[in-house]
Design brief:
Elements (H helix, E strand, L loop, with lengths): L6 H12 L2 H4 L14 H4 L11 H7 L4 H20 L5 H4 L7 H12 L6
Helix pairs in contact: 4-5
């Protein structure tokens, strides 16, 4: 599946998937219940100390503005909780790296190359 996605799509998928971490861990029922994640910022609820450039994220994700991004994010989170019950996906949690085949091979080579003088 990821081989067909561009790097931006992969980053957006990782960002959305990571918002489910506390729900998957059983700490909260929904990412909206966790004050410290990215859910509130993407939903436009955080006004201070923002970390994400939502308009830029929407633009690179080819979504029409931050409000549409918030809707897509909320729908994806709700669909994931409903259909997957918050289960983790092995693709994200057991992978060495996530990205194109070329990127994954490059990371693998770097990790397998002995480092001298560390």
């Amino acid at each position: 599946m990821l081989q067909s996605l561009n790097p931006v799509s992969i980053c957006v998928a990782v960002l959305f998937y990571s918002d489910l971490n506390m729900a998957r861990a059983g700490v909260v029922n929904h990412p909206a219940d966790w004050a410290f994640g990215g859910y509130h910022e993407i939903q436009g609820n955080r006004r201070r100390n923002r970390l994400l450039a939502l308009e830029t994220l929407a633009e690179v994700a080819e979504i029409d503005g931050s409000e549409a991004l918030a809707r897509a994010h909320r729908d994806w989170i709700d669909d994931a909780l409903r259909s997957e019950g918050g289960r983790r996906e092995e693709l994200w949690t057991k992978s060495l790296a996530v990205g194109s085949e070329q990127f994954v091979q490059k990371i693998q080579e770097k990790l397998l190359t002995p480092k001298i003088g560390l």
